[in-house]
Queue: 4 jobs
Job 1
Amino acid sequence: MNKPIIIGNWKLNGSKYSIQTFVRNFFKELSNFKKCNIIIAPPNIYLDFFKNILFNKNLISLCAQDVDFNNYGSFTGETSPLMLKDIGVKYVIIGHSERRFYHKEDDQVITKKFSSLKKIGLIPIICIGETKTEKLQDKTIDVICYKQLNSIIEKMGVESLNDSIIAYEPIWAIGTGKAANPNEVQIIHESIRQFIFKKNSQTAKKVKILYGGSINEKNAIKFFEKQDVDGLLVGNAALETKIFSRIINEISYYNKNNN
Ligand code: PGA
């Protein structure tokens, strides 16, 4: 298996001071972090600052929390894929449920963002997930595969997922402290992989599928130990240096192949 992927999404939090403190303490706490692919998404305005104070730029990859699909033009307030690339960003989260909900972004818009990122070689992290109601109605796979993922696959082809990351984040688990059940997550991740497998077996093997939603230092390994969980997308717990580094340390020492 490739390196586990651990993403920290800071959302709308942080300041120059807190970022400096984070970087200083983070590396002290980490023991075996080279075994993980650590990706951090600060607010866009701090991306460049964050990059510049990272002690060793190769240890953490820069990620943006969102992006516009236009590269330039009269789109006040937006940040473009080209601009992100220009300052050294490698990954971009798209389709986060907070963007879908508060900014009314639909699958069409998210597909356009995906397309713009792929065109210039940035790696999309596509968030998919169902609401509590959809889960109760047994519609999870319909929503995340046949609707959300399919929107991208139909427009861009399934192979476009080869070097992309999918983050399964049930909406009801995000920021609630109520993470999903790891066994259920495994079943859902397996279904996502099978859905892709039917279209292209190689892509199904290559695509990385992460879980996100109320991950903390106690439950992280319970998700990561599942066969089809290639990593984690961490929100609130990524703001606290000690907790985030503990999650990374645990996952670094866990050898999936031997367990
Ligand atoms: P959470 O957020 O870990 O705070 O639930 C996850 C996310 O929004 O990606």
Note: Residues 9, 169, 174-175, 212-215, 233-237 surround 2-phosphoglycolic acid (CB under 6 Å).
Job 2
Amino acid sequence: MILILKKGVTEDQVEYVLKKIEQAGLKPHISKGADVTVIGCIGHEDAVKAFFEEAQALAGVDKAIRISKPYKLASKEIGKEKSIIKIGNVEIGGDKIAIIAGPCAVETLENITDIAENVKDAGAVILRGGAFKPRTSPYTFQGLGEEGLKFLGEARKRTGLLVVTEVMDPRDLDLVCRYADIIQVGARNMQNFRLLQEVGMVKKPVILKRGLCSTIQEFLMSAEYIMSNGNESVILCERGIRTYETSTRNTLDLSAIPVLKRLSHLPVIVDPSHAAGVWYYIESLSLAAIAAGADGLMIEVHPMPEKAYSDGAQSLKYDTFSKLIGKAKLVANAVNRNI
Ligand code: PEP
Ligand code: MN
């Protein structure tokens, strides 16, 4: 439920409304606009229902409106049109499209620093690289763990790029937070609710990837798990979903971009690499994603894809990546954005 406060509401009245929300067992989320203040009341459905009549009658409250969607904080109905997430000197969700690039997995210090320098030169602002890898087979490379995080930290220091890396297990969260600027929750863990709750309690932005077979509503409910635990800096990432098509690893759901933008105020980025699974399609999908309104791209890059420890087939070489960014700038300009 949201409470729209009256114009000219006093500070005392706002305080009183906040107190009443808490007494009803709900959490208030206040957003002060230019002329109207809106307070979201978040909590158990029964508590919201019980509080509805009383809330409408409180001094200073103009009207109470139930949020119709099952996700509340992630919904535009909470009274937010667009969230811009600031991380260091990078903004995601504003006019500028954020380019995130790097290898699938952190391999060696030399490799990650070389990739960091090259993707930075091409226009990336955030370095990606997995240290804890969610591999389908337990007999393939699982990531370097803490050593990989240290290498990422070193690449960050040398280039000034921000770093995003995946956390798969709540037990690794503290460690990952020591090195990462942004936490990634991967597709396979999109509905690992305990992990989502834990990630909701840290003060780092989160890139939440859409599950392999998840609907948009399920995706937004997972964002809600993170947000309702206190962390509202969630960036949604469309990375392809499973369909009957086998020419590509997954099918990039381009429709998810305008749909998510219509339903939610959260930024939406696109990972064309895990969608395509084949490097050849990454450029087209990236350009299409920008045209459809994506706030960022996350792309796998490797200097020698044939030698990559994982996902070589979908990794771009430096020159291909750099050419893609050149074209992406033109598409961004065509839709009044920039890179
Ligand atoms: C990744 O980004 O490294 C990854 C494993 O992606 P996804 O979770 O989308 O499969
Ligand atoms: Mn990968």
Note: The longest helix spans residues 318-334.
Job 3
Amino acid sequence: MQTLLQLDKIKLAVQAESIEGHAQGAVLHGMRVSLLHPFGETLCYRHGWHSWSLSCWLPLSLKLSTPLAKSLWPQIDHPALLEDYPFTSSSLTALQAPDGKVLLLGALGLDARLKVDTEMVRGEYVAPKAADLEWFLAFGEERTVFAAYAGMLEQRLGARGHGQPWRVWCSWYGLYTGISEDILLGVLPGLKDLPFDVFQVDDGWQVSLGDWEANEKFPSGMQVLARKIRASGYVPGLWLAPLAVAPTSRLFQEHPEWLLRDADGKLVPAGHNWGDDFYGLDVTRPGVQKWLTERIQQVRFWGFDYLKLDFLYAGALPGARYQKLPGELALRKALEIIRQAAGEVAYLLTCGVPMLASLGLADGLRVGPDVAPQWENTDRSYFLHDFSGPGVLNAIRTTLHRLWLRPLAQVDPDVAYFREKYNLLTSEQKAVLQDLVQVTGFRATSDLPVWLSPEERQALHAFLSHNPQITQTGRYQFNIDNRPVDFGVLEGLWPD
Ligand code: 9PG
């Protein structure tokens, strides 16, 4: 049906199967919905597919080139969104009206994408059998309509992660894969007196992507390590990428039929990392589901209570699945299995993950690209046209545009830096990142205690000890303990 819908002061021609009024806007039904918007050339909120994907307000006239590195596509964004980059959006989009109010169209179920131009907004669910083909349409003050959308998502998908986030020491941005049992045990005493809650072991402990056993650098095994972390007073945390598989793994050799393939039987590439291409699992297969349950039960048995589950989009890529589910619904099924196996009390942080699929299942969501001890990722941003690569500006940009998810899960902006050693960030750049981390409340660092000067250690201590009062005063403006902070002045906040 086509209707002329009055929302606030604007009239919109809307096409959908059916339309219901709602206190804060309207609910549209249909696999495909579209509307004519009156704003012409304006700002558009683009929401990328997974944690690292570009999410930002962009002028509709902006011509961003498609990212060049095709082998990286799935780890940049959904390949279908990149085909028509950049005014394609995952799950939701919004447009800014001349008076500053915004029009938001957001899917209330999984596997939806949108396209925007100066005349129309079109939304579509990618699979006809998706269970709930609903959309939320609202016009009003930016924070009000985003909050209303978040409220609708909470009703449909759930929310978790209420309460104060844990303070995390994470091994990645200090040691990368250069971790070992001895090195990590050597870090623990230096953290004494710093108020961390979690000591999280990141990538580098496993035999291979797919073979989730301790490698030779962890000769006493993961259970002993978890016990020692706990004995030092921390919740043991562990990174794993349970849906990603390296071609050199035993899992790949033993179960080629478990891997996600396209309709021609060809493996679906999930990205390029660890010096090789890697692939995703078909999580709709009973064998994979049993294996996944056992892997999660295993790490819980070892004693890890905080799980950072990474590269999850690998299980949500388009493919010909055993059970005919579209990608995000398949991923949600996997996350339900993981939550069930991990138990209610486990803390699940999802990363490299399409946002909506985690809601109600994850306690924390990584909402931006990786930080790095540098401000810009010049190679990927400027030479490859890709704004998802590790770097502080990329991380701040996308995280700032995902703060509306805060009622639904804790939002992880990635770690803050306090060290000067091995770091190209200036003091000002480190301070901007620390401010953003305070805004989210999710405080983590990877700085090695031996790298910190007495002043840096004191600053980290103060950062972890004090919960500042945060108020938002504008799209990019906040007060942190009455100190005004404006992220809007950052050069390059909007890519061009
Ligand atoms: C471990 C890391 C850390 C980190 C995660 C994730 O696009 N990329 O090339 C890309 C590589 C690594 C990456 C993200 C993107 O990092 O976000 O915190 O756990 O894996 O390998």
Note: The first strand starts at residue 2 and ends at 7.
Job 4
Amino acid sequence: MDGDMAISHLIVMVVEDHGFQRRLALRLLAELGVQQRLEAADGAAALALLSRQALMPDVLLVDLDLPDMAGIEFIRRVAEGKLARAVVLACALDREPLQSVQNLARSHGLRVLGCIGKPMTVGKLQAVLEDYAALIDEADGDPPIEISPAMLRSALDDEEISAWFQPQATLANGQVVAVEVLARWQRPDGVTLRPQQFIPLLESAALIDRMTEQMLVQACHWKRQWALSGLHLKVSLNLSMHNLGQFDAADRYQRIVREHRIEPREVVLELTEASLMGDSANALNVLARLRLKGFGLSIDDFGTGYSSLAQLAQNPFTELKIDRSFVSGAAQQPRRRAVIEASLELARKLNLGVVAEGVEQVDDWQMLAELGCNYAQGYLIARPVPGDQVAEMVARWRRPEC
Ligand code: C2E
Ligand code: CA
Ligand code: CA
């Protein structure tokens, strides 16, 4: 990865129908040193241009009031086609982006960086692009590494992808009772890749079943190790929708946990709310079988998809994980708090446990505890660590004074 992601290296496209506004934005980008600037006067032209780009643009600066194709429809196409990494909206006023636009984008992994009110200024543009550059540096960096199916296969053969673990603590008493399994690819060249950088590739190379099984085997192995020292933790494993494609999936997972003398009820399987939207009959069938065998089933990133009540009630889930975009900072933001309260209410009615993810601050922990949420996961408690550091991490954690 190439360390500092400076603004000047970003690829930015301006999508704006007013000639004057468009030229202004391009000039400001040039002033900020952005070398690669693209422009389009409407959504259709932008999509055509995007489909021809060899390198995915980092940021699209989109006028929300585009004619012809409404701005939101354009963003939907960009998100669904994974045509850019992030968008900045240009709006009449400075304000928080519409939640509907954020949800739409986020459920497809597109980042919404914010709204810039017109007139656009160098300062506003710089602030939002610098935030993005910082985000890229600290998060995944999505380095443009070429990863071939052969590389993925050898990574699996050599077990280069390992399970890391992040704790979940009971809000009522602070006790760590579970860990989520998070995949890390530690390549021989010393670079560690985040799941977003390789899981989509494993899915399209039809290798995701192998990885998921390796994660489950490693998690079971470590779970046994921790138990030997008296530390009993449930494990939560992330599943991809692709893992539910084959009828025998439930039997395979059951066999793996049994081989490690672990009960399925000690294992929770997480599926993102967004992935559940395209629910095929087959996937639902496998989920039902997993549930019958005793596995817990969790709806991940809850609040970012569009589950209807009917859908929730009919699926065999046991747990909700409230997405971190609602959790982080909730104590200071009434709207986020309202979403959490509504989710807790829903979970109570459907008899589901609730995990709040992305708990980073003490006041968020306290608020969640007061609201009666069951479990918290997030950097406040600990970041993900390798299996051999879990016991130490659990011992180090002290819950905040309430
Ligand atoms: P996720 O299931 O929502 O996992 C939580 C992600 O949030 C993890 O990122 C974790 O490191 C991060 N996180 C935890 N606490 C905090 C916090 O307090 N603040 C912030 N800002 N972030 C926090 P990670 O490990 O990069 O995983 C990203 C996603 O990749 C996961 O999101 C999950 O959807 C997917 N993933 C990870 N491992 C696997 C896997 O084995 N199989 C599949 N299919 N997907 C996986
Ligand atoms: Ca998860
Ligand atoms: Ca999540």
Note: The chain has a mean pLDDT of 89.
